[in-house]
Design a protein that fits this description.
alpha/beta; eight-stranded parallel beta barrel; 23 helices; 16 strands; 39% helix; 10% strand; globular; binds 4-O-methyl-beta-D-glucopyranuronic acid
Length: 714
């Protein structure tokens, strides 16, 4: 009996050891297996000097000690002074001054939030120093150092000095107070409002750790489709509890402000931003918030967009609205982030043009503590969009980037799509605002103009699923956002490499194959869903899956025929001078590269042009043939992804391997679904046969049109 129990125990124990549920994200801190490397690491980290007793330095020390202990299977000995080789010293420059004098140049380069990591000799002993101007810098430096170990880098001659490129490194949660998450595919909201503030879920701290590990320092807890209840005293106490915890990881909390709150909860007859009583209401509200949360970040506002209230309800401008809120938070050093995602029902103008038309006349009219948050493209987080024309058109306005991590239009919760290539593509785009080289990156970080604030936000994909993001690979997009907010130049390959090593495995074979899958994944989904500049072909409402046939909706620009404009002559949205002329919102040099269908980059062809079905493409194929080629190739590539993943079984724990295997099968089926739906539907216009060699869709267009998803998440 005893023996059986023992065998059973062993079996069980083994399974626990190897089970992975994704909860630890990229902070798994697995023991170093390579013995040479392990002893090398141990020789460099045997003792730890870590002065400082603030809450943030406590977070850093705890992380450093637990991470090192887990990876090296040996706890560094706490020390007060350097007595031996292998002493790790972590602390702000002033705290470690007596032990090591940090150079003024280094400190200058590190700035307020950056850090320095150096291999140094102290009393002839080999040491490593992690230091900074602030505790926050030390926290970021500690995570960076842990990442070096997690990714198995050499640490014998470290010379790192780095500072974040952006000030606001931010997540936007579209989380409702009832815990549903708009466009969320990873369960319910991470915020258990009902149980806060007394019950503090362990997840809150782990969320904060994950953010701090990649330098994210701000979070907006609530949906931009805002609910005023969050501003009631009862809810503000809940927010304060989260803010108190997040502060210990260097994170500031923001909330969304419902513009009509003074009416809805304040009992005022109006929310007119020029009304003194309204202004006073917001001032009082701000004072109340800052009493509870002294470092409150400020407000994020979606106004006069998709039914949200705003200043235009009172014939005022976006600037009037933003400035009124900005004045309310200014005495507390608060910020107002005002979204440029606006388009009106009444204006029959191409939706692409509306934000520009609305905002460009307001250039220079916003307060210093207002940032205009602009989505990467002018429509709405499509799998590919040309950069938003506003980035090239508001030289006197601080604009920050809004990317979407949650894959609303990129396969939602079922698809493996790594978004860093999409992010980089936008950041590298040249607006030509101040001549060649005026990239979106430079607009964002303020190197083209002087500005007080800058930032980048990602609409999160986080929920209460055990692994936070639903799809095991979706975590990579959260990670990528953080890395890019720190340094917009990090290339997607490096981001994937780091993330994979920390999240899955450091095996070279695994890395090479999986990196390839990740780096190609966005191209693959583009090909089988919305190739060549096609966009907005999704199901009405849920946005899940293909429905290019949608021609009825609450508003024309919520239909899909509005965007693809397929007819017997061809397909695509003519946005050139002979069409909507959205292209006219870009600099002449940019226009030039896109305005001629013969020379326009084919990835944007149908975004800007209505093209005849028989148009000759660069490949020599006609447009119709090319469309089929793209759809079929995309689906075929998905099959290859499945095959490649299948070969990686030995490198991945059982649970996650099977999870990804199943998800890839779902994604493959979706690829076929996209391909067949789109090819069959567009064929009703082109009236051309699917080229020889491609298997014919096994279902009819009617079948695809009949599919319904009444309970699709998000
Ligand atoms: O992407 C669209 C979404 C809406 C969202 C809106 C926005 C929060 O479909 O769900 O609302 O954009 O960004 O405001």
């Amino acid at each position: 009996m005893k023996k059986i129990f023992f065998v059973f125990f062993l079996f069980f124990y083994n399974n626990i050891l190897h089970a992975e549920n994704g909860y630890d994200l990229w902070l798994r801190y697995l023991p170093v297996e390579n013995q040479l490397l392990l002893s090398e690491y141990r020789s460099h980290i045997s003792a730890l000097i870590f002065p400082g007793n603030t809450a943030i330095s406590g977070s850093a020390r705890e992380e450093l000690v637990s991470g090192i202990t887990a990876m090296l299977k040996k706890k560094p000995v706490p020390a007060e002074s350097v007595l031996s080789n292998g002493t790790l010293i972590a602390g702000t420059a002033s705290r470690i001054e007596k032990i090591y004098k940090v150079s003024a140049d280094d400190l200058k380069a590190a700035g307020e939030e950056g850090f320095i990591i150096r291999s140094v000799l102290i009393n002839n002993r080999k040491c490593i120093v992690i230091t900074a101007n602030s505790d926050k810098g030390v926290l970021y430096g500690s995570f960076y150092f842990l990442r070096l170990l997690q990714t198995r880098q050499a640490i014998n001659s470290l010379k790192v000095v780095t500072a974040p490129q952006l000030q606001l490194r931010m997540l936007n949660h579209w989380d409702n107070l009832n815990r549903t998450v708009e466009r969320g595919y990873a369960g319910f909201s991470n915020w258990n409002w009902h149980m806060l503030p007394t019950y503090m879920d362990k997840r809150y701290r782990d969320y904060a750790r994950a953010n701090a590990s990649v330098g994210i320092n701000s979070t907006v807890l609530t949906n931009v489709n805002a609910n005023a209840t969050i501003l009631t005293p009862e809810y503000l106490r809940k927010v304060a509890a989260l803010a108190d915890l997040f502060r210990t990881y260097g994170i500031r909390v923001f909330l969304t402000a419902r513009f009509s709150a003074p009416v809805e909860m304040g009992g005022l007859p109006t929310a007119d931003p020029l009304d003194p009583a309204v202004q006073q209401w917001w001032k009082n509200k701000a004072d109340e918030i800052y009493k509870l949360i002294p470092d409150f970040g400020g407000f994020l506002v979606k106004a006069n967009s998709e039914g949200q209230p705003g200043p235009q309800n009172y014939n005022r401008t976006h600037a009037d609205g933003a400035n009124m809120l900005a004045d309310a938070v200014a005495p507390h050093k608060g910020i107002v982030i005002w979204r440029a995602f606006v388009y009106s029902n009444e204006v029959p103008e191409d939706r692409h043009k509306q934000a520009y038309n609305e905002f460009v006349p307001l250039d220079g009219k916003f307060r210093q503590n207002v940032l205009i948050q602009v989505k990467n493209g002018a429509i709405d987080f499509m799998p590919r969009e040309p950069f938003h024309p506003l980035f090239g058109a508001m030289p006197k306005t601080q604009m920050m980037m809004e990317f979407q991590l949650t894959q609303e239009y990129l396969g939602q919760g079922t698809s493996l799509v790594f978004l860093a290539p999409l992010f980089r593509e936008t950041l590298e785009s040249d607006t030509w605002r101040n001549g060649k080289g005026s990239t979106v990156e430079k607009v964002i970080d303020g190197s083209l103009q002087t500005q007080t604030f800058n930032g980048m936000a990602g609409v999160t994909n986080i929920g209460n699923d055990i692994n936070w993001c639903g799809h095991p690979f979706a975590q990579a997009n959260w990670y990528a956002l953080g890395r890019l907010t720190w340094d917009m130049k990090v290339i997607p390959e490096q981001i994937a490499d780091e993330w994979l090593k920390m999240t899955f495995s450091v095996e070279e074979k695994f890395l090479a194959a999986t990196k390839k899958i990740m780096l190609e994944s966005r191209d693959v989904i583009l090909q089988y869903s919305m190739p060549m500049g096609l966009h907005h072909l999704i199901t009405y409402g849920s946005h899940y899956g293909p429905a290019p046939w949608v021609d009825k909706g609450a508003r024309p620009d919520w239909t899909n025929v509005y965007y693809h404009k397929a007819d017997s002559a061809g397909i695509g949205f003519n946005r050139t001078a002979s069409g909507s002329n959205a292209i006219g919102q870009y600099a002449p040099e940019v226009q030039q590269s896109w305005s001629n269908p013969e020379t326009c980059d084919e990835k944007y062809l149908l975004w800007f042009h209505h093209i005849s079905w028989t148009h000759k493409m660069k490949s020599g194929r006609t447009l119709w043939e090319e469309l089929c080629y793209q759809y079929y190739t995309g689906a075929e590539r998905m099959k290859n992804v499945q095959n490649e993943w299948a070969k990686l079984k030995i490198y991945v724990d059982k649970d996650r391997f099977e999870q990804v295997t199943m998800l890839l099968q779902v994604q493959y089926e979706e690829a076929i679904w996209w391909r067949n739906s789109c090819v069959l539907y567009f064929q009703t216009f082109s009236k051309m046969a699917i080229p020889a060699g491609y298997e014919k869709p096994d279902k009819t267009l009617e079948y695809y049109k009949s599919l319904k998803f009444p309970f699709a998440p998000g």
